[in-house]
Structures are given as C-alpha cells and as structure tokens.
Amino acid sequence: MNTVQLAAEDLSLFGGDVWWLVVIKAVFCFAFLMVTVLFSIVWERKVVAWMQLRIGPNRHGPWGMLQSLADGVKLMLKEDIIVKRADKVVYVLAPIIAAVPAFMAIAVIPFGPAGNEVSIFGQRTSMQLTDLPIAMLYILAVASVGIYGIVLAGWSSGSTYPLLGGLRSCAQMISYEIAMGAAFASVFLYSGSMSTSAIVEAQQDRWFIVLLPVSFIIYVVTMVGETNRAPFDMPESEGDLVGGFNTEYSSIKFALFMLAEYVNMVTVSAVSVTLFLGGWRAPYPISSFWEGANHGWWPLLWFVLKVQLLLFFFIWLRGTLPRVRYDQLMKLGWKVLIPVSVVWLMMVATVRALRNEAYEIADIALYVGGAVVAILLLSFVADIFRDKREKAAAADAAKDTAPFDPLAGGFPVPPKPGQHLAPVPRRRSRSERELIASGGANTDSDREEA
C-alpha cells in the first residue's frame, strides 16, 4: 500500500463568487434535494412493490411518476389538527426544527472539482456552494440539531406514546453518532483534513472504501440508524408506539417530518459518497480510459449516480429486513459498533503513525498482526474464566431446589434465575376418571390400600 498523498487545503477558491451566483447555487442545492426526494419516494414504492410482486403506484402521471407530488398535495389539503394538551408554540416549531437542519448539510458537499471548472452565465465557479476547514464537524453539528425537532415533537404533543417515541429517537441517534464520529476520524487521519473538497482530492489514487472498509461498513450501519429507517425505525414502530413521535401530527406538519426523513437519507448518502466513494470522481473503468470524465459537468453525473445507488440500498433494506427490537438496536450500537469503531480507529492511527516514521509495510503488518493476536488471546482467556464462573453459578443454582412460591408477596411474580416453581399436579385423563368413577382397579386409592 502506497502512502496516501495528503490533500492541501486551498479554500481561497470559495467566497469570491458574486451574490447572484451564490443565490443560484443555493437554489440548486435546495432543488437537488427536493427533486431527489420526490424521485426517491416514487422509486421506493416502485422497488418495494417489485420486490413483493405488487404493481405499485401507476395512476398519477406516466408510470405513476407523479405519485409523490400527489401525496404532498393530499397532505397539504388535509385538516390541520392541534390537540388541546399540546404546547402550541413548540408543537408548531418542532417539524420546522427537524426539517431545516436536514437541508443545511448539503452546503458543504462538493458536486465537482474545487477549481473554476464550470461556467454559469459567463462566470467561472466551482460546483460547491462553500467549504470549511472543519466542514465534517459542521455536518455532524447540523445532524445533531435535527434530533431536537423529534424530541420536542414527542414532548409537546402532551401524549405518552409520542413522548416515548421522541425519547427512543434521542437515545438511538446519540448512540449511533458516536460510532459515526469514529468512522469519520479514520477518514480524517488518511486525508489529513476535515474539508470535504480536500477529502475528495485525497482519493485521487484510491478511494477510501478500499483503504478503510471497516469505517465504510460502520458508517453505512450508523447512517441507517441515524435516519430512523428500517430495520432501525424504532421511533415510528407502529406495533409498539401507535405511530411514534408524530402520532399527534397531521397535514403539512406531518409532511415536514416525512420530508426531513427523506432529505436526511439524501444527505447521509451524499456524505458517504464524499468520504468513501471518491465523491464526484468517475468510477475506475471510466476514469482509466477517458481523461475528460472528471472535468466539466460530468462529475455531477457520477455524484448523482453514486447517491442513487446508496438510496437504492436504503430501499433494499426496507424491503428485505424485519424491524429489530429496541434492545437489539441499542446493543448493536453500544456493544458492537462503538467498540469496533474505536479499535479500528486505533489500528488506523497506528498504521498512519508508523508510515509517517518511514516504517516498511512488512514491519507494520507484523506489529498490527501481533496486536490482533494478543487481543484474541486475551479475549480467549477472558472467555475461559467467564465460562467457569457461569458453570459455578449454574451449579449453585442447581443446589437451590426449594420450591418457589410466586404468591408469597401478595401478587404473582416470575421466578428468578435458580428458583423453581412447585410442580403442578398432573391432570388425570378421561379414561382414568372413568375408571375411578366405576370403582375399577388400579386407582390411586387401590394402590394406597395395597
């Protein structure tokens, strides 16, 4: 593996556009999200219908392509209901707080090279609204603000089940953002920058999905949990919480929550493309024989195709996997993703430090392999001692054979581990009851007299 050349941060290309060009680029970012959302809703319903051998939407527009537009009009024309016990100010602001941050992260996503590559009405500009030295921290901060909209929606409704849905969402997003941040840190170590344009430039020779496959897998899992999508859609689990945090919402406010969910899907997909899939760069077979694939307006095409591929992955998960339980969701976040991401980050940092000290690849592989073997040995020894403790606890529980009275406290309670219920008398069969009634032999009373 060759040393990755660190991209130099040159942000002087941003901030020099005239005001009307900035407005055009901002409108383009907003329109890109809205059009992608409208397409994604129809595409999701079509793909899931295809997976489930159904027809799907086919009434509104050619091939049903205007179905999402019809759904938006329908929601806007529905009656807007505000429950009596709701905190009206927070109740109305919550959908706005959830939707607005979803649009803000796209401002630092590069759709093309940072240089003056394209011409818009005679003005040369880059295909990115702006960039920051800490652009990825800006994306994390904006994503965290959206959590408040969901939590406040559950609290302000004045109902129990929306409150539970909001709390679920808060705990879920906080849990998965920790592993997401650790996955980002691995990219920062290899790119040497938190600027999105610099991260894409650092993938000129090799995409980070090849160099950091574990970080990519961790981020893919966390972005599904971050967007509350199936199989991690716990805040909206109808079977548990009626409808989740948006139970008491209707009309346009309910539409804003749905809009925020789909915009977040597009945003996290765009971030994944930027960090791991080469950003706006053309795929390998195309870029190898076509020099102009990464110039002009072509980078926008490659970027959109990669985003649509990840959106198809979201749809594929929804049509394939069942919803997990909430305890399984939290166990995956805290006991699997966070430890794996931290250990992987330490390994990446070690490799980068050794490469900076001019160590050879063979020496680095030896050190990393030795550390992995040591960790496996320690875990093996820990498993042996844990099994011994479990066997000893099982033996102690087996000695305690005293029957357990579930009604000792005045109300029925289940037995604790190691406690056993008293055996229930076996119900006599019909033939035995008939034999006893007729006074026949082989009854319990005959056996007692004998």
From TrEMBL:
GO molecular function, one term: oxidoreductase activity
Coiled-coil regions listed: none
Reaction catalysed by this enzyme: a quinone + NADH + 5 H(+)(in) = a quinol + NAD(+) + 4 H(+)(out)
InterPro entries assigned: NADH_UbQ_OxRdtase_su1/FPO (IPR001694), NADH_UbQ_OxRdtase_su1_CS (IPR018086)
Family note: Belongs to the complex I subunit 1 family.
Source species of the chain: Streptomyces yangpuensis
First-listed, main subcellular location of the protein, grouped into a coarse class: membrane
Regions that span the bilayer: 18-43, 89-112, 132-155, 176-200, 206-225, 254-280, 300-320, 332-352, 364-385
Cell compartment(s), UniProt: Cell membrane; Membrane
Record-given protein name: NADH-quinone oxidoreductase subunit H
Region of interest (Disordered), ranges: 397-450
Keywords in alphabetical order: Cell membrane, Membrane, NAD, Oxidoreductase, Quinone, Translocase, Transmembrane, Transmembrane helix, Ubiquinone
NCBIfam families in the cross-refs: PRK06076.1-2 (NF004741), PRK06076.1-4 (NF004743)
Membrane topology annotation: Multi-pass membrane protein
Description of how the protein assembles with itself and partners: NDH-1 is composed of 14 different subunits. Subunits NuoA, H, J, K, L, M, N constitute the membrane sector of the complex.
Cited Pfam families: NADHdh
Primary role: NDH-1 shuttles electrons from NADH, via FMN and iron-sulfur (Fe-S) centers, to quinones in the respiratory chain. The immediate electron acceptor for the enzyme in this species is believed to be ubiquinone. Couples the redox reaction to proton translocation (for every two electrons transferred, four hydrogen ions are translocated across the cytoplasmic membrane), and thus conserves the redox energy in a proton gradient. This subunit may bind ubiquinone.
EC number: 7.1.1.-
